[in-house]
Amino acid sequence: TMKSLEVGYWVDEEPYELSDDFPASELCRLERVSAGAGYRQELFAECPPIFVSENCSPPSDSLMSLINLCGGKVSTSVRKAGICIGSMTRRTQAVNITEQWLLDCITEHAVLPYTNYALNSPAKRRRETSPSY
What we know:
InterPro entries: BRCT_dom, BRCT_dom_sf, Microcephalin-like. By secondary structure, the protein is mainly α. It has four helices and three strands; from the N terminus they run ααβαββα.
C-alpha cells in the first residue's frame, strides 16, 4: 500500500506477498486473478452453519465477516449451528472450537480438523461422580 501511494497507482502485490508465512496467499491471489470480477472465496462453503460467541477475540463481528467472505454460513442460533466458535455457556450438540481454528483455516486455505481446537465448554462437561448426600 505504501509503495502504491508513493508511485500514485496500485503496484503488483506479488513482490509483497508473505508466502513463506502465509502459504495460501499466493494460491488465493491466483484464484482471484483467474476468476476475474466474479471471484468468491468458497473455503467454508461445505461447512455446516457457524455460530460465533459474543466473547471472542478477534471480535465476533470481525469473525462473522471473515466467515461470510470465505463463503460460509453464519448462524445466529446456537441450536441451528454445526460449529460454535468461542466459549459457550449453553449446551450444544455442535462442535465447539476456538477462534484460532477459523484464523488458521484462512491462513492455510484449508478446512482444518477440529481436534487441536476443541473447547471444553462448561455446558458440555459431565459430572464424574454423583453428589454425596
